[in-house]
Design goal:
The protein has one domain. Helices cover 20% and strands 29% of the residues. By secondary structure, it is an alpha+beta fold. The strands form four sheets. Strands 1-2-3-7-6 form a five-stranded antiparallel sheet, with helices on one face. The chain has a four-stranded antiparallel sheet with strand order 9-11-12-15, with helices on both faces. A three-stranded mixed sheet has the order 4-5-10, with no helix packed on it.
Length: 244
């Protein structure tokens, strides 16, 4: 690449873009964490650095001696990674959100949402095999079946059921860089108690709310904008006394 960069401005721009990408998303071999990349299942056993503490369909979680948590997001056949929502119009004029396999771009956005609204989270890098590695601070598990309905309602705003239904727990509205997102799956296994005693999300399912879909639902679109200004806004706007 360095030879080509000197021949043309387009090659120079591509080289600069590659260097920027590598700086923001380093290539990190599995061996960095004590795993072997030359075996069928590198995560089958603990290493001297990390021990398994959990995991699910999307990722495997390990902790180190300093109680930092490392998550390894596994890609599926076809390149899917993580989870997101897809949208369709359901009965009664509401929006139906269904969990579906995600993409790398949506995974990185989800990790940013987790960092912004939950536990401190950083992307460590990606392995040569395509496994995204994220690091989080450790938190204590909540008691099983803890009620999550009141979790951070001024930033993770419960969405009125008259507008949207989802197949994941507690669908909420969140804003990432000003854009409305659907956030869900914030059940008690995806929330922990941080060192300061606060409840913090460690995982979620998320997707940007598509303007083309919300634009067909004017009451929902209106509520999103009112909730942007006032997280406690009701499903319907208050009537102006002068109009009564």
């Amino acid at each position: 690449m360095s030879l080509l960069e000197g021949t043309d401005a387009a090659w120079a721009a591509l080289g600069a873009a590659i260097r920027t990408f590598r700086a923001s998303l380093p290539i990190v071999p599995l061996e960095t964490f004590g795993f072997r990349s030359d075996v069928d299942d590198p995560f089958e056993a603990n290493t001297t650095e990390l021990h398994r503490i959990g995991g699910g369909v999307e990722a495997l979680a390990f902790a180190d001696r300093r109680q930092s948590v490392y998550k390894f997001f596994l890609f599926r056949e076809g390149g899917d990674v993580g989870a997101t929502f897809v949208f369709a119009h359901g009965e009664g004029g509401l929006l139906q959100a269904t969990a579906a396999p995600g993409s790398y771009g949506l995974l990185f956005a989800k990790l940013r949402l987790t960092h912004q609204f939950g536990i401190p989270t950083e992307v460590v890098g990606i392995t040569p095999e395509g496994i995204v590695v994220a690091k989080q601070t450790f938190g204590r598990l909540l008691p099983e079946k803890t009620d999550m309905s009141g979790l951070d309602p001024t930033r993770l705003i419960p969405i009125p059921s008259r507008f949207l239904r989802a197949d994941r727990d507690h669908p909420r509205l969140a804003f990432l860089e000003g854009e409305p997102w659907l956030v869900g799956d914030t059940h008690d296994r995806n929330v922990v108690v941080a060192e300061d005693g606060s409840w913090r999300i460690i995982d979620l399912v998320a997707a940007p709310l598509p303007p083309a879909e919300t634009g067909r639902l004017p009451l929902f679109r209106d509520w999103i904008e009112r909730a942007r200004r006032d997280p406690l806004a009701g499903a319907l706007a208050a009537a102006d006394d002068d109009e009564l």
